[in-house]
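PROTOCOL LOG
Step 1. Enter all chains and additional molecules of the complex.
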Amino acid sequence: MIALGWLVAMFVAAPLLVVIPISFSDAVSLEFPPPSWGLRYYQAYFADPRWTQPTINSLIIATAVAALTMVLVTPAAFALVRHRFGGKGAVNLLLMLPMVVPHIVIAIGYYAFLSDIGLLQSFPGVILAHTALSVPVAFLVLTASLKGFDRTLERAALSLGAAPWQAFLHVTVPVLWPGFAAAALFAFVQSFDETVVAIFVSGATTETLPRRMFDSIRMQADPVIAVVSTLLFGVVALLALAAMLRRRAGG
Amino acid sequence: MRAVASPATGDAGFAVPAARGTWRPWLLVAPLLAFLAAFFLVPLGQVLVMSVTDPEPGFGHFVAIATDGFFLRVLAQTFATALLVAVLTLLLGFPLAYAMAEAGPRMAALMMVLVTMSFWTSFLVRTYAWMVILGKSGPIAWLSATLLGGAPPELLFTRFSSTLAMVHILIPYMVLSLYAALRRIEPAVLRSAASLGAPPVSVFRHVILPLAAPGVVNGLTLVFVLCLGFYVTPVLIGSPREQMIAGVIGHQVEEFLAFGEASALSVVLLASTMIVLGVYHRRFGLDRLWG
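Step 2. Run joint prediction.
Step 3. Record the structure below.
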């Protein structure tokens, strides 16, 4: 069973690696194994505004989404973890809704809705849509971290004469900041990776990186996609490595 | 957990928002609720409205979906594929999750890294990887040409390629669900079963499998629901003649601006998803789905 498990682990991991040699190929079109090696596709990626602009757009959108999501989700997470009130169960379900509605369904809705209010293909339009989709994951991460918070720390601060806002700023926030950071990161990634809604609501000047990749794969399978894939994969690998080192260091 | 600050229990003065009136928590939740109402529920409602008003009022689109051979085939195809993908991820994911639970901590950590790295890699990157692997100038074609001296059958743009890629993309969800359940099994339980004379096969059948059942249900539900609405992978590497429902919805809008038809299909997809999750929610509670 364990040997079989390793086999499946290889099936999970190995296909991801194929993009790396392709990205360093020097062939004019997709060819395996690459006849010669080079950085021509990397040059093509970094020199072509049709690739760099969507990358920048995605970074801008995902940053704005992470910020807006945290502003909306943080107070709600505190309320739902620390209070009991009527309708709480319904609120919890509503907050999960953007995660369970298939993206193609809400993409059609956003297309119609954003064109009605004149925000189709605009930055605010994409940001609003992505923020709604990022709420559930940020909320789940934040509430998990809040539930583990020991409130006697706040009580100690208050009993030592701190004002409530001081206790919040100097005790609650420093203890919970990894949770805040993780929630913001999840919101960022959710937006940065989101494809389906972006295909329908982003436009020429607001095109996101996944939309550009999707169109490019659909049109001609440009090998520059292998470069983008390798770079994205590299970021994930670095994050995984950082998380592993942190855990080993007992962080 | 009763320690939640409440003025009634003598914690007065600790003004970290206490449940003085029930309106206080609502004040904190209100901005988020207002946002979701305006920028999620309204667009979603618009889909429902368009399905019965565009281009003219009536249930014509739903009648068409229920009677038209094309739409019925798409629906059957979608459900069959989702079921197949869910079962395949279970069959493949179980040995991996089991190995993670049984192997030593270092091996388990390594497997976990592989699974999470795949999990965090964008759907598009993983779909593109399969496009390269199965493509005419990819490693499979190269191997087949060098070893067998001929080109393999057309693999890309078939049901096979999209099913394979979806299994690969969704398997981390299954493995993480199964692992969460398997990890909770006490080694002492297995030891006592063995010491009472159960052979390994019956330990597996009568102890491990029943205890893993919640993970199996979670994984199957999650993968089935995600696969039902899958857009990117079937559109990019599936068979153009055998699209799943999400691809057809997108096509109706992109090619024909047929919002009414696309919305009606969306309602069918949404209802199917909600029925599956509703049954899950009644039996287990939706918050468990994400472990």
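Step 4. Note key features.
The CA atoms of residues 134 and 187 of chain A lie 5 Å apart.
Residues 1-29+223-251 of chain A form one domain.
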